[in-house]
Amino acid sequence: MMKTKALVTGFAALTLLAACKHKTEETVESKQVCVSDSMAKQITIDTAKTATMKDELTLSGEVSFDDNNVVKVFPFSSGQVMEVKVSLGDRVTKGQTLAVIRSADVAGNYTDLTATQSDLAIAKRQLSQAEYLYKNGISSERDYTEAKENYNKAVAASSKVKDQIAINGGGNTNASGTLVVRAPQSGYVVEKNITQGSFIRPDNSASLFTISNMQDVWIWANVFESDISKVKKGYAAKVTTIAYPGKVFTGVVNEVSSVLDPDNKVMKIKVVLPNPDMLLKPEMFTSVTITNSDNQQAVAIPAKAVVFDSSKNYVVVYNSKCDLKVREVSVIKTVDDVTYIGSGLKPGDKVVSKNQLMLYDALTAE
């Protein structure tokens, strides 16, 4: 009796071992299931093909304005900022007042203009007198020539001051020293470097404002040293933001830096994106996915055809309406809704890629 029980136990263990062993084989044991005409309309069948594998690299990035399409507004003169009329991010139109500055230099130019105009008036009268005396033989030609030279000098001095006033603000200044800074073009204020009450020094070289039309933006992304070989100019790029999680902006890698950042040891790449709806704004954080094709090839199927179950990947292989098999496959990677298969399928095999889970459950039901 004990011997019979041992034989039964041994047979059960052998059966269990065989079942486990069979589960690891390429084709999983399954029931016969036939696809009805109505079911055939609900499923999609795709053919496995050999394709060049794509690779994806996800990077962190930041939105910046297009440096090639901006206008930087510099101060014409030193002075104190009395008013700032706009804020960072404001939409401005050409000619709109950005700031008002009180400048001693501007006031000095108008003072010089008054002085040179007075000198010019005196020189003109002296020239008229010298000309009258010379033509009537009372004074010498030398006196007349000297008067003309003095008049020409006065004209030049007055013109010089007028040119200085025109260069340092033109019609946007007045004799009290007020300088009105206006927008040279329409766009958005993407940089603002002054505040009310601040003083602009004569040696200041920084711009007061930067204005961009924001029709195009740049995405600067960081590439770690280990991934440099995976990024090249012209590679496709998909950009997503926290602000618009469901929206994908597409572009290409426009520029790859030749040097690494000395502080964080990353290489910068630039992606140019059109921004017609003004959704992308400077300083936004982005996630940049770079897609490229390498030289390796593998069997490719739609990613939706793969069934993940019990830590393994399976597909439903379609041979005919009543010949469907569940087959285990090894997945290399999935890129852009395409899954590349390492083993388990060969080119030409047909797999169910829509409603395959329903067939999978029917084929593997116990």
On the 0 to 100 scale, the average pLDDT is 84
- The whole-angstrom Rg is 40 Å
Strand content: 35-45%
Number of helices: 5
Distance between the ends: 32 Å
The helicity comes to 25-40%
Shape: rod-shaped
Stretches where pLDDT is under 50 for at least 5 consecutive residues are 1-25
Extended strand count: 21
Largest sheet: 6 strands, antiparallel, barrel
**SSE ordering:** HEHEEEEEEHHEEEEEEEEEEEEEEH
- Strand arrangement in the largest pleated sheet: 3-12-15-14-13-16
Class by alpha and beta content: alpha+beta
Structural features, described:
The protein has 366 residues and is α+β, with helices and mostly antiparallel strands. It has five helices and 21 strands. It has helices at residues 2-23, 37-40, 104-135, 141-167, 356-364; strands spanning 27-28, 44-47, 49-65, 70-73, 79-84, 91-92, 97-102, 178-182, 187-192, 199-200, 209-212, 216-224, 236-241, 249-260, 266-274, 285-302, 307-309, 312-320, 323-335, 338-343, 350-354. A six-stranded antiparallel β-barrel has the order 3-12-15-14-13-16. A four-stranded antiparallel sheet has the order 4-11-9-6, with no helix packed on it. It has a four-stranded antiparallel sheet with strand order 8-7-5-10. Strand 17 and strand 18 (312-320) form a beta hairpin. The longest helix is centred in the N-terminal third of the chain and has 32 residues, at 104-135. It is rod-shaped and about 130 Å long. The two termini are 32 Å apart.
Keywords:
366 residues; disordered N terminus
Q: What is shown here, in short?
A:
The chain is of the alpha+beta class and 366 residues long.
